[in-house]
Structures are given as structure tokens and as C-alpha cells.
Specification:
The chain has 16 helices and 19 strands. The protein has 499 residues and is α/β, with parallel strands linked by helices. One of its GO terms (cellular component) is cytosol.
């Protein structure tokens, strides 16, 4: 299999702020000389591990009595951490924690990572036990958090070093911090309208701000046209974009679909002009994502522009700016979540079922996260875009084979968002050479049962598609925002709704 070796570079570095507070019992320090220094060294090691995950760490030090907890609260709140890690370095009373957890609205993760795999039992001392007593007060802390009405988001239990599972859990929470940091500050542009009669697409921009903190920015097509109109064929920026496109994409001969042709010079030029205009527009409006649907008058320059975003959109999506057709604001948010989890995030829907392979084609006419392709993506000229006006270049590729995760953001009867999540497998198989992206998705227990469960869970018909198994991470993201979620492929589907 030809692997896609080219990757679209992220245009905006991942970042987040995470807080770390270690807890202990002040009585111990006088009783056991050297213990406090050992505990501080453990906390320093945790901070080092977190710093390796593209986050800024704010260390709030040792909280070993109630007075310190009350004194530390204003500093923690002022730092606005996206996640707070509580380092359970030894036994501590819950008074070191209650005043803080009661007030914070950010996810709190208890970290119990002991230095030793087991005590040296024949030679064990109380000092040795206290050095490894990370778990001891975890039940006390979790119980008090529930009593305060602020349950902790997670508990990570393991060894301080040499524990890949614990390291992976820390890394996952740093990625969730990236999601929370960017989503709470994101400017999601929207332009045009929902395709007529697609009622599941309707999204109240104020509801996005209420649920996630992001700001929905109204935009006009004329803003992009102002960037597009002056771009001549010989403009250096257009020529550079054309070279970039041809370097990244393959342009094969058509196969069977009469709507497709080999990429024409005219379609390449139009896609390049549109991509340059779109990038300039995104930069000028300081957007972090964009959802649109606009048709323009037949034969107009505006129609040529707005129906040829797909190549530029895919490049931007790969660079960390989710771009969403059909005015689907909710799925734009889902794509941003997946991108910040570093698992991709392509715009997708279900296509025909393959009952012989027990799969369903998963894809769309774009935009797509190019960094999850399993081989060099293809551009074809399309004589028409089915169901929509316009013609031009279309993006076609398979995503990587292996585990996949899907997220659709629906709306319940109360108008609140609901995450519908599933895991499956991308499996090898032929895809139609129609200029659209597709992959064969296989889901447990079988394709019909899965599709029935997915449909009955109340999704939007679009979803974000990523690679790997990340349903639990997305479920945790939902919980940190207080959003209801359901994992359709979970063992207890039909019983579980979290949030």
C-alpha cells in the first residue's frame, strides 16, 4: 500500500494551561525528616511528564492543610487552567482539596503514581509506606468531591515511571486540555445558510457559546470575493498554491464515472485562487474554523468561488482549521475536537452499505483532514457536484486502515447538544472513483445493527471521522462541558447516557 508521506503542517501550535497541586499532611513533615523533599521531587517529576505534552504547567505547590487550600484558590482561579491535576503524593486530608474543588468549574484529575511497584516488605518502614501512599486518600477525595457537587473527572493510578498506561492517561488529559483551551476561545465563522429542508443542520450560534464558550462569527461571501477577485492566473501566490496542490495530490485519469475527468488546468487555477482567497480571509477574520453554504447567481464569479472551496478547505482542515460545508456548525465543532485530540477529523456521512463485506462506505465530498489519508489523496475534475450547484475539483482518498472513531453532535428535545460517538474499523476495500472520499467502515456487532443503533441515537447526519480508538476521550470531553453523550458501540448501549 502506498502510504501518504506528506503531512499538512499545523498552522497554529497546540497549547493549553494545566495546573498541578500536590497534597500531603503537614503533620508528617516534622515527624519524618526528608519526606517533604521526597514528595516535592515526585511532583516535579509529574510536571516534567506533563510538559512533554505541549502544555504550559502551572505548579501551585504543596497544599498540606485547609488554610493553604483557601489561600491557593484565588491563584488557581486566576491562572484559568484548562485541567487541574491533583498530585496525590502521599496521604492528605480532604480539607486540602474541598475548598478548591467546590469552586472550580474545570475538570479535576486525581493522579496517584507511586514510585515503587511494590513495597520491599521485609525491610518496609513507615517512611517507605508514606512515600508510596498515593492511593490512600483517593477515595476520601472522590467522595468529598461528590458531596461538594463537583465529581472529579478522572483518577489515574499507576507508577511514577515505567508505566505506559499511566503516561498515556496523562497524555490524553493534556489533549483534552488542548480541546478545552481552543474550543472555549474559538472563533467559528459561518456564512450563508443551511441547505433548504436540512432541518438537522440548524444550529443556534448562541447555543454554541453557552455550551462550549466559542464565538460564532457571521461572515459574508463578499468578504472572500474581495480576496479572490484580484488574483490573476500569474499571481505569485496563486502559482505557489498550484505547485503546493500538485505536490500534495495525485491527478489520475478517470475510471468509470462520466461525471469525472482528469484535473483540468482551469479547475486547478480556480481551486488555487479560491484556496489563496480562503486562507487570506481566515487570517484577516482571525477564524479557527468555518462553516458555510452559499450558492450565488448562476454563471457569476461568486458562484465559481463559493463552489470551489473544497481543495483549500481540505488543506486548511489538515492544518488544524476545521472547514465544514453545508453550513454545519455542529460538525465544525466536532471536527475541531478531533483535531485537537490529534486524531484527524474529516467531514463525513454514511454512503451505501456493502452487505457482502459487512461494511458501510463512510465519506463525503469534503472537506477532509488530509493527514489521516493512507495514501496520496486524489484530485479529479467533476462536471457537476451532485445535489448542489457548481463544478470543479473534488478530493478523493481512503483514510488509514485500522481503528476509527466518529462523533456526531445532535440536539435533544430540550435543545441541548448531545454527542453520539462510535468506534469501528477502517478496512481495505474498493471505493468508487467519483471524486469523493470514502472508506469501508466495519462496526460491531454487524453493519445493520450498528447503523440502526446509530440512527436511533439521534445524531446529525454528518459527523467528524478520526483515526484510533478514542470514544472514551470524547466522552470525557463531553462531560467536561456538561454535555450529554452516548457511545453507540459501547457494551451497555441503551443504558448509558453520560453528561
Amino acid at each position: 500500500m502506498e502510504m501518504n508521506l506528506l503531512q499538512v503542517a499545523r498552522r497554529k501550535p497546540l497549547t493549553a494551561t494545566v495546573g498541578v497541586m500536590s497534597v500531603g499532611l503537614d503533620t508528617y513533615w516534622e515527624q519524618f525528616p526528608g519526606l517533604l523533599e521526597r514528595m516535592r521531587a515526585k511532583s516535579v517529576r509529574l510536571c516534567e511528564k506533563l510538559c512533554a505534552n505541549q502544555v504550559v504547567v502551572r505548579d501551585f505547590g504543596m497544599i498540606d492543610r485547609a488554610e493553604k487550600a483557601y489561600a491557593a484558590l484565588p491563584e488557581i482561579e486566576a491562572a484559568q487552567p484548562d485541567v487541574l491535576f491533583v498530585d496525590m503524593v502521599t496521604y492528605a486530608t480532604s480539607a486540602t482539596f474541598a475548598a478548591i474543588v467546590r469552586k472550580l468549574t474545570v475538570p479535576v484529575v486525581l493522579v496517584a503514581l507511586q514510585p515503587e511497584a511494590a513495597l520491599d516488605y521485609p525491610n518496609a518502614t513507615t517512611f517507605m509506606q508514606l512515600c508510596n501512599d498515593d492511593l490512600c486518600s483517593v477515595p476520601e477525595f472522590t467522595g468529598v468531591a461528590v458531596r461538594m457537587g463537583r465529581p472529579v473527572a478522572d483518577v489515574i493510578i499507576g507508577r511514577l515511571d515505567g508505566d505506559p498506561a499511566a503516561d498515556a492517561a496523562l497524555a490524553e488529559w493534556c489533549r483534552i486540555a488542548h480541546v478545552r483551551h481552543d474550543l472555549a476561545r474559538a472563533r467559528i465563522g459561518y456564512m450563508g445558510r443551511v441547505l433548504e429542508t436540512m432541518l438537522d443542520m440548524q444550529t443556534d450560534p448562541a447555543a454554541l457559546t453557552a455550551a462550549f464558550g466559542c464565538h460564532a462569527v457571521p461572515c459574508e461571501p463578499d468578504e472572500i470575493m474581495r480576496e479572490f477577485a484580484p488574483l490573476a492566473a500569474d499571481d505569485p501566490a496563486v502559482a505557489a498554491m498550484s505547485r503546493r496542490i500538485l505536490e500534495f495530490f495525485d491527478t489520475p485519469e478517470p475510471v468509470g464515472d462520466p461525471l469525472t475527468a482528469r484535473l483540468t488546468e482551469a479547475d486547478l487555477l480556480l481551486a488555487s485562487r479560491a484556496a489563496v482567497a480562503l486562507e487570506r480571509f481566515i487570517d484577516r477574520r482571525k477564524l479557527d474554523g468555518f462553516a458555510y453554504y452559499y450558492e450565488g447567481e448562476p454563471g457569476s464569479e461568486l458562484r465559481k468561488l463559493v463552489t470551489n472551496f473544497i481543495v483549500g478547505n481540505s488543506l486548511l482542515t489538515g492544518a488544524g482549521f476545521p472547514m465544514c460545508g453545508e453550513f454545519d456548525l455542529k460538525t465544525c465543532v466536532a471536527m475541531l475536537i478531533m483535531d485537537r485530540l490529534e486524531i484527524g477529523g474529516s467531514f463525513a456521512e454514511f454512503h451505501p452499505v456493502d452487505f457482502e463485506r459487512d461494511t458501510v462506505l463512510v465519506g463525503h465530498d469534503g472537506p477532509h483532514h488530509l493527514n489521516i489519508a493512507d495514501r496520496r489523496p486524489v484530485l479529479r475534475s467533476l462536471k457537476k457536484y451532485h445535489g448542489k450547484p457548481g463544478a470543479g475539483a473534488g478530493v478523493e482518498f481512503n483514510i488509514r486502515t485500522g481503528p476509527i472513531t466518529m462523533l456526531s453532535i445532535g440536539v435533544n428535545a430540550s435543545g441541548k447538544f448531545r454527542f453520539v460517538i462510535a468506534e469501528g474499523e477502517s478496512v481495505p476495500g474498493p471505493i468508487p472513483p467519483t471524486g469523493n472520499t470514502n472508506t469501508h467502515g466495519r462496526f460491531a456487532p454487524d453493519v445493520r445493527t450498528f447503523l440502526k443503533r446509530w440512527c436511533l441515537a439521534g445524531p446529525t447526519h454528518h459527523f467528524a471521522l478520526g483515526v484510533g480508538r478514542h470514544a472514551r476521550a470524547i466522552e470525557r470531553v463531553a462531560a467536561t462541558f456538561g454535555v450529554e453523550s452516548v457511545i453507540v458501540t459501547g457494551e451497555n448501549f441503551g443504558l448509558q447516557v453520560t453528561g
